[in-house]
Every structure is written in C-alpha cells, then in structure tokens.
Amino acid sequence: MDAIDTIGEGGLRFAAFAAVFLLMAVFEWAAPRRTLTHRRSRRWFTNLAIVAIDVAAVRLLFPLAAVGVAFWAQSRGVGLFHITGTPGWLAGLIAFLALDLAIWAQHLAVHKIPLFWRFHRVHHADVDIDLTTALRFHPVEIAASMLWKMAVVAALGAPPLSVFLFEVVLNGMAMFNHANARLPDSVDRVVRLVLVTPDMHRVHHSTDVAETDSNYGFNLSIWDRMFRTYVPQPALGHEAMVIGLDDYQSEDPTRLGWSLLLPLSRQNRERGERRRRETAAGALKPPLNRN
Questions:
Q1: pLDDT tens across 39-63, in order?
Q2: pTM attached to this predicted model
Q3: Which terminal residue of the chain has fewer beta carbons within 10 Å of its beta carbon, N or C?
C-alpha cells in the first residue's frame, strides 16, 4: 500500500484506466462485434463528459472514497475482519468477492426499484454499446454507488489494498465487457465460466425487457448463474439485436444535456415506470435459457 500512499490512489487508478481504455479501443478496432448505428464522435463526447462529471462529483462529495474508508477502518479497528482477527490474505480475498456480490446486488436493485431505475436508464439509453458505455452513469447513481461501497467496506473492515484492486478491476472489467469486440466463440465459452464477457453482458443491453433483466454481473459470472439471472445469448443474435431502450431509439441519447436531464423528465419517468412494470411482470416467468 506504500505506492498508493506515495503516488495517490487517484493517480494510480487513472493510469490503469487509461491503459485499459487504450487497450479496449484497439480491441474494438481490430475485432468489432457489431456495426455501430450512431456517430461515434458525438456518443464518445457525451459519455466521456459524463464520466468527467462523475469523477468531479465523487471527489467533491466523498474525498475519502472507498479506499479512504478502508484506511479509516484499518486505523480504528472497525469492521468484521478487524473484530474477528481475520488474516490479511483471507480478509482481502473475501472482501473482493463480497464487494463484487454487493455490486451485483446494487445493479439488480437499480433495475427493480423505480426511483433508482430512473437514473440507471441513462446508462441503458445509449443507442450503441462500446467501451464508453461502461462510463455512462448518471452522477446521482455514481454517488449512490459510492455510498453503498463505502458502507460495505466499513462493515467488513476490508483491507485497503483489496478495495483498491477491486476498484481497478471493476473499472477495467466494465470497459472490457461493454466493448464492441468479438472474442472467438471457443474463448468466450471458457472465459465466461468465470468472468463476464462482452457477449454475455451485451445481452443485458437489449431492448427486450426479458433480456435486460438478466446478466447483471460486471466481474464474475457466478452470481448470475447462482441467482438464475443468466441468459447465454440474445434471441435475435448479437448483430441483429437492438441496443438501448425502445422509447429512445433516436439521436437524443447521444446528447449530453438530454442524458443528464433524462431522470427529471415527467414523460421519461412515466415511460420508465411502465418499463419497470413490464420487467416486474417478466420476473414472474421462468428464466430464459437460450443456447
């Protein structure tokens, strides 16, 4: 953890982000999965502007962030691991898995709870899916997500290094599994036994409500299998499936102002509530099993 103290958590995370972003951009260029339907320049400007606003908001509202809370808990002996005297290596492993499950549960919640879905729709409204979609989250949702992670870290007394690695891996994996990139089928089948692949997560961005209500994981694929929310493939196939939300198949989601104001629009709220009712109805049906 000395490197984190010396260089700063933010600097290290940005370096990792930049490296993964460039790698995924090359991956998308070399092996694209779908033909994008909207202008990349406008979408990327909006999605990158949103993540810049998110970073500024989190740093302003939560100067400690999740890693800072881990240091605080460590210095005061707060949390389950400190109380039970759990060995550092075991605490780190359990904390990583627990945080991944917590993010999976949070993702499920923002789809099921109408107030949270109102903000999460900004992410799903993207009319194409590529690595920048992984960065497209409304600042209110990002702030709520940080509060949730901080609470989990404090309750566990998670080791700072484990929290830092989780944050880096979560960010990198989100860009990987949102990438408009093609893995060979044989590789995808093996990798998705453990990790969420682009083909697996792309199903979640389908306009088909039953498919949107699946594949909630960002890192490990085990949670969707365990909780029966796993759908292997989209009904229409990856090239023909429609990305985004039915109500917003236009240029609107590529605009920054429209995207930030989406949760506040009365018409958009009504549309979102209707979609949540459809999803709730779909949740009563047996899970899909498309091979």
A1: 889 999 999 999 999 999 999 999 8
A2: 0.88
A3: C
- Please tell me the distance from the alpha carbon of residue 215 to that of residue 205, in angstroms, as a whole number: 9
Can you read off the two tokens belonging to residue 2? 């000395």
> Is there a contact between 71 and 160 (Cβ–Cβ < 8 Å)?
yes
Q: Which ranges constitute the DSSP H helices of 64-184? A: 65-76, 80-84, 88-112, 114-124, 139-156, 160-178
Q: Whole-angstrom Cα distance, residue 253 to residue 249?
A: 8
Q: Which residues of 17-41 are buried (b: 16+ CB within 10 A; e: fewer)?
A: beebbeebbebbeeeebbeeebeee
Residue 210 · residue 188 · CB < 8 Å: no
Q: Is 181 helix (H, G, I), strand (E, B) or coil?
A: strand
Q: What does the buried/exposed string (b/e) look like for 215-251 if buried means 16 or more CB atoms within 10 Å of the residue's CB? A: bbbbbbbbbbeeeebbbebbeeebeebebbbebbbee
